[in-house]
Amino acid sequence: MSDKRANPLTKSLETIGSGALFALRVITDAFRAPFEVSYVCLEVADQGWRSLPLILSSGLALGLVMTLHTRNVLIKFGASAWIPSLQSLSFFVEIGPLVAALLVAGRVGAGMGASLAEMRATEQIDAIEALSVDSFKLLVVPRVAACVLVLPVLTTFMDFCGVFSGFLSEYFLSHLSLQLYVTRAFRDVEWSNFIPPTLKTAVFGFIIGTVSCFFGYTTNEGAEGVRKAATNSVVVSSLLVILADVILVKIIFLVFPESAI
Amino acid sequence: MNDAKDTAVALDHVSKAFGQKQVLEDITFSVAREEAICLLGRSGIGKSVALKLIIALVKPDTGHIWIDGEDITQLKGKELSRVRRKMGFLFQNGALFDFLNLYDNLALPLHRLTQKSKQEIEQIIDRALRQVGLSGDREKMPNELSGGMMKRAGLARALVLEPQILLVDEPSSGLDRVTASEIDDLLLEQKQHTTMIIVSHDVHGARRVCDRFAVLDQGRLAAIGKPQDLEHHENETVRKLVAEKYDVES
Q1: Residue B249 pLDDT > 70, yes or no?
Q2: pLDDT tens-digit readout, B67-96
Q3: Beta carbon pairs, A and B, within 8 Å
Q4: What is the dotted CATH code of the domain comprising B7-242?
Q5: Selection from B111, B104, B121, B242 nearest residue A133 by Cα
Q6: A40, A97, A260, B24: least surrounded by Cβ within 10 Å?
Q7: Local structure of residue B98 (DSSP, 8 states)
């Protein structure tokens, strides 16, 4: 137990160290039997179902707003034919993955952190340990695994919602047909523009799941701990997702140079 | 201390502090097989911590805790799980897993820790739920249960693995007298073949169930013995805690 009077720097370093060890344990335990397949499936369904409405509505709204913003500028330069292509590339390469991750951090991350913290406060985690069951494998690993699996799927939904609402916007403003919009939208899209950015959200999922579970699982402050876990889960995982995005984009450019627009 | 064959649990000079706060200091006592002992003490004195030390949910700073002749403070991983399986723990509020219904709460340890078939597990759970009067509630989620039902369900879950040692944290807290008495009846049934360590503030119920009282005061073991012997103890706190009726004016 850390001393409450320890200076903030020491506490921060202690938290970073504990978090790193926690993440390492998630990875090692994920490949150690028993594999909690049924709990992973339940978590995938739960996290996916809880996030889907938010992802769909945000994708649609963002797609509309983006078309409205870019349209006038592109028309001014006589490049209105590029609207669909710009829309799809923007969503596939950056907007879809990053926004989906941030939304999941807010929607699922806060919930995971709070629910684990509540389980700690109500002695449910102690009860699991008292029954000689590994609470980490039962509660943490399935949640993180589900986050890793569900985020690329949610990102794909967001990407296509964004592209679809771009079409709706174009249809109502310039009566562009669906066939022409789709042809233009996917004309310049390579697989390398879609697969690596979508798969990078698995890393975002790992970050969101691990950070949220870390704050929830390791809290020991009762009701106050639940509030702190929820807040810290969202703030820290969002920040780490943005930082990881910078690094991953650079790595994707190195591995897939053709993906650079 | 761990030599006595009839000793189920023994605490040997156990101390525990959280940060700057010394909670338990130099606690030494033992519990014989099939004996029921009640830990008494003022709120926040460290009674629940003592139970968590016994089942190794918390590690002591100093001292040893012997469970059936094995020092649980030195055990890790599978060895720790093996010794923990000898114990059942009824938490203060039942601590039912809120993501599972009542049936699955009881089935979880059976699925994980035994080789029993589905039918056997079904039979064990049916029997356990019948024993605590919750046969008709097996599909209910924890948030659909009352406080008394949660306690009974927690007791059923603690007992499904047929532990040799039962640790009970405040079985009657927050319950009316009738429900508390029902919980005491269930504990009395278990007493015939289980060692019990019960943390309680309900002296009346504890006198029914327990053979001896261990009284904690200011982090130390102030007294241990039969309730009637402790009624005349030199320590005033011990006398007050053991008395069935405590008159504030006196």
Answers
A1: no
A2: 998 999 999 888 999 999 999 999 988 899
A3: 60
A4: 3.40.50.300
A5: B111
A6: A260
A7: T
